[in-house]
Design brief:
Helix content is 38%, strand content 14%. The chain has 400 residues and is of the alpha/beta class. It folds into 2 domains: 28-294, Type I PLP-dependent aspartate aminotransferase-like (Major domain) (Aspartate Aminotransferase, domain 2, 3-Layer(aba) Sandwich); 296-397, Alpha-Beta Complex (Aspartate Aminotransferase, domain 1), CATH 3.90.1150. The structure holds pyridoxal-5'-phosphate (PLP).
Length: 400
C-alpha cells in the first residue's frame, strides 16, 4: 500500500542529519502518534490541560511550573514577553509596543543567532555584551559575567542565554549577576537534549525560564516545545498565549497556572496567539516527554551507536576517505565522520552532500564541517536498513 506521502505525491527522504525543522523534525514513536489521535477525539478546556502539563513538566524539570509551546522559538517569544510584562494585562495588550516598559534584553555577543528573532518579536531590543575574542583567535576571552552586570540598566527586562556545551560565561555566573540586579535569565536550551539530565540542569543552575524543543530528541510533535521556570513568569506567558475571549466573571483559570486574584482584569488575545498549541500537541508532547525520560540513557546511546556502527561499516574502505565513529560522551549522541581527501577524489565534501541530497532517495547528511572536508552523519532520525542504503549511495557518488 502507498504511504500517505506517496498518495500526496511527495517524496520521503533519509535523514542522517538530525531533527532539523527543514527536514520535518524527528520521527515520533507510535505511542505518541496514538496519543495524539486519541486526544483529537475529545474537547477539553485548554487552560486545564496546560495546568496539568505544568505539573508534569514541573515534576520532570524541577521548575515551579511549565507550559507546552509550539516549539522552543515560541518559548523564547513567550518567555521574553513574560519578562517584559510581568502580570500586567495592560502591558500585555500593548505588546509588541514596549514604549515605557523594560524593553531591552542583554545577550552575550557570542550567543547571537537567528533564533533570537523570537526574542525580538516581543518588541524588545537585544543589547549585545562583550566581545568573543576566543572565536577570532585574537584572544582567549569571551563575554564575562561582570560585563553583563555592568550592562544592566533600568531598561533591562532579561538576560538571554543560549546553552551549548561551549557557551561562556557559565550560566551560574550569569544567574548570579542577573539576580543581584533583579533581572531574570531566559535560557534557550532548544537542542540540549540528550542528556536527559539537562531537563533539570539549567533550572538547578538558577535559570528563571528555560525553552526546549519538543520535536528534536524528545521526539514529540514537530511543532511542540516546553517552557519551564518561575510560576509567575509561566502565568504571564500563559496569559499571552491562551485564548481569553471570555467574560471575566465567567473565567475560572486553574489557580495553579494563573492566579486570577492577582489580576485587575484579563488581557485580550496576546503576542503569543500566533503560536497556538492544540490539544493534540500538548498530549503528544507529554507522552513523548515521558517516554524520553523513562528510556535508559545507555539503551538510547546503544541504539544510536548500533546505527552509527552499521553506517561506519557500510562506508568502510572507500578510497581516499577515512571513516570513524565519533562518540560525544557529553551529549550521548554518536556520529559518523567521513573525511574526504578532496584533492585526490576531485570532489568536495559539499559536492558529496549535495549529490546525496539531490539523488533518489534523497539522503541528508550534516554539512557543519564541510570546510574541513568532513561529512557528518547523525543517528537521531535514521531507521534500520538506512545505513546500508547510505553506504551504497556514497560508493556510487565516489565511484567505488
Ligand atoms: C532548534 C533550535 C531552536 C528552535 O526550536 P523549535 O522547537 O524548532 O522552535 C531555537 N534555538 C536553538 C539554539 C535551536 O537549536
Amino acid at each position: 500500500m502507498l504511504n500517505i506521502y506517496e498518495r500526496l505525491g511527495v517524496r520521503t527522504l533519509i535523514n542522517a542529519s538530525g531533527p532539523a525543522t527543514r527536514l520535518s523534525g524527528s520521527i515520533m514513536p507510535p505511542e505518541v502518534a496514538d496519543a495524539m489521535r486519541e486526544a483529537s477525539q475529545y474537547c477539553v478546556d485548554i487552560a486545564e490541560l496546560q495546568a496539568r502539563a505544568s505539573e508534569i513538566i514541573a515534576d520532570i524539570t524541577g521548575a515551579e511550573a511549565g507550559y507546552v509551546t509550539s516549539g522552543a522559538a515560541a518559548g523564547l517569544l513567550l518567555g521574553t514577553a513574560a519578562c517584559v510584562t510581568g502580570l500586567d494585562p495592560g502591558k500585555m495588550n500593548r505588546l509588541p509596543d514596549t514604549t515605557g516598559m523594560k524593553n531591552e534584553v542583554l545577550i552575550p555577543r557570542s550567543h547571537r543567532n537567528f533564533y533570537d528573532h523570537a526574542v525580538r518579536s516581543a518588541g524588545v531590543r537585544l543589547v549585545e555584551v562583550g566581545i568573543a575574542d576566543r572565536f577570532s583567535g585574537a584572544g582567549v576571552r569571551d563575554t564575562e559575567a561582570w560585563e553583563i552586570a555592568d550592562a544592566v540598566t533600568e531598561r533591562t527586562a532579561a538576560v538571554c542565554y543560549v546553552a551549548y556545551s561551549h557557551s561562556l560565561p557559565p550560566l551560574s555566573a550569569v544567574v548570579d549577576v542577573a539576580h543581584a540586579a533583579g533581572v531574570p535569565v531566559l535560557v534557550d536550551a532548544a537542542g540540549q537534549l540528550p542528556p536527559a539530565s539537562n531537563l533539570r540542569r539549567f533550572i538547578a543552575e538558577g535559570a528563571d525560564l528555560v525553552a526546549f524543543s519538543g520535536g528534536k530528541a524528545i521526539r514529540g510533535p514537530q511543532s511542540s516545545g516546553i517552557l519551564c521556570g518561575r510560576r509567575d513568569l509561566i502565568a504571564a506567558a500563559a496569559l499571552q498565549h491562551l485564548d481569553l475571549d471570555i467574560l471575566f466573571d465567567q473565567w475560572h483559570p486553574p489557580p495553579s497556572l494563573i492566579d486570577k486574584n492577582r489580576l485587575p482584569g484579563a488581557p485580550q488575545h496576546g503576542i503569543g496567539r500566533p503560536c497556538k498549541v492544540g490539544k493534540e500537541e500538548i498530549v503528544g508532547l507529554l507522552t513523548a516527554l515521558k517516554l524520553f525520560v523513562d528510556e535508559d540513557p545507555e539503551v538510547r546511546r546503544q541504539r544510536w551507536l548500533r546505527l552509527m556502527e552499521g553506517l561506519a561499516s557500510a562506508l568502510q574502505d572507500i578510497r581516499h576517505t577515512e571513516v570513524s565513529v565519533v562518540a560525544d560522551r557529553k551529549r550521548d549522541v554518536p556520529a559518523v565522520q567521513l573525511k574526504l581527501d578532496e584533492a585526490l577524489l576531485g570532489l568536495s565534501a559539499l559536492d558529496l552532500i549535495t549529490q546525496l541530497q539531490d539523488g533518489e532517495p534523497s539522503i541528508h547528511a550534516n554539512p557543519t564541517r564541510v570546510s574541513e572536508g568532513v561529512v557528518l552523519f547523525g543517528p537521531m532520525c535514521l531507521k534500520d536498513g538506512e545505513p546500508e542504503l547510505i553506504g551504497l549511495r556514497v560508493r556510487m557518488v565516489l565511484k567505488f
